[in-house]
Design a protein that fits this description.
60% of the residues lie in helices and 16% in strands. It is α+β, with helices and mostly antiparallel strands. The chain has one domain. The chain has a two-stranded antiparallel ribbon. The longest helix has 20 residues. The radius of gyration is 16 Å and the shape is flat.
Length: 102
């Protein structure tokens, strides 16, 4: 699912546009001036697709003798989400939260 959505994002990315694309903005904590801002540029869109591909490879190449498979797959997907967030974050607070998640 993650690989499919990131591939759609890559196909919809226009490299001729000089600004950030696939933007999402939401005021997070207004009194402090904090916002939730996600964007991708030419490098981060490739890194998001690469991260999704590596996550799929890691899931399918893991051995069948995992002690707690539900916990393992949950942690792999949590790591994938944290790395995705670090690649697309546009403010320091969101980047910090994403890197601490991963």
């Amino acid at each position: 699912m993650t690989l499919a959505l990131s591939s759609v994002m890559l196909m919809g990315f226009d490299p001729r546009v000089g600004s950030l694309q696939w933007s999402e903005y939401l005021d997070w904590i207004k009194p402090l001036g904090l916002s939730y801002s996600l964007d991708v540029d030419g490098l981060s869109v490739l890194l998001v697709v690469l991260n999704a591909l590596l996550t799929v490879i890691a899931i399918y190449s893991s051995t069948a003798n995992i002690g707690w498979p539900h916990l393992y797959y949950c942690l792999v997907l949590l790591l994938c989400g944290g790395v995705h967030g670090a690649f697309v974050a546009q403010n320091l607070l969101l980047f910090f939260c994403s890197t601490k998640l991963s």
